[in-house]
Amino acid sequence: MAANCELYRKASIGTCLTDALDELVTNGSLTPLLAVKVLMQFDKSMNDALQTKIKSKVSFKGHLHTYRYYDNMWTFLLEKALFKTENESVQVDLVKVIACDAKATTR
């Protein structure tokens, strides 16, 4: 796996970027190599922005149904999870939390 976590490519902003890059490659406006470099920069920029720009903190707890660590990625499946911020609390029946291994993303 790449040193930067590719998790945000599956978010709406990442899928829109991927779709736009695919269209540019298909019509010949962009080389596939440059499209890959743009995605790699996107991964790095998202990780950097979330580490330096976001100051909010969220805590959560719930019943751990399943967990897995594979390819520097943690996946937790929580039941009856409660998410708390400074201002509000939200409870959900089932949630999947995916996290990159911090050691793997800082290389």
TrEMBL record:
The UniProt record lists the Transcription initiation factor IIA gamma subunit N-terminal domain at: 5-50
Per the record, the similarity remark reads: Belongs to the TFIIA subunit 2 family.
* Family annotation (PANTHER family): TRANSCRIPTION INITIATION FACTOR IIA SUBUNIT 2
Q: What is the lineage of its organism?
A: Eukaryota, Viridiplantae, Streptophyta, Embryophyta, Tracheophyta
Function in brief: TFIIA is a component of the transcription machinery of RNA polymerase II and plays an important role in transcriptional activation.
Under the heading InterPro entries, the entry gives: TFIIA_a-hlx (IPR009083), TFIIA_b-brl (IPR009088), TFIIA_gsu (IPR003194), TFIIA_gsu_C (IPR015871), TFIIA_gsu_N (IPR015872)
Entry-linked Pfam families: TFIIA_gamma_C (PF02751), TFIIA_gamma_N (PF02268)
Per UniProt, residues of the Transcription initiation factor IIA gamma subunit C-terminal domain are: 61-102
**What is the protein's given name?**
Transcription initiation factor IIA subunit 2
Q: Which residues form a coiled coil?
A: none
GO cellular component entries: transcription factor TFIIA complex
Assigned keywords, A-Z: Nucleus, Transcription, Transcription regulation
Q: Does the keyword Repeat apply?
A: no
- Does Transcription regulation show up as a keyword for this record? yes
Q: Where in the cell is it found?
A: Nucleus
A single GO BP annotation from the record?
A: transcription initiation at RNA polymerase II promoter
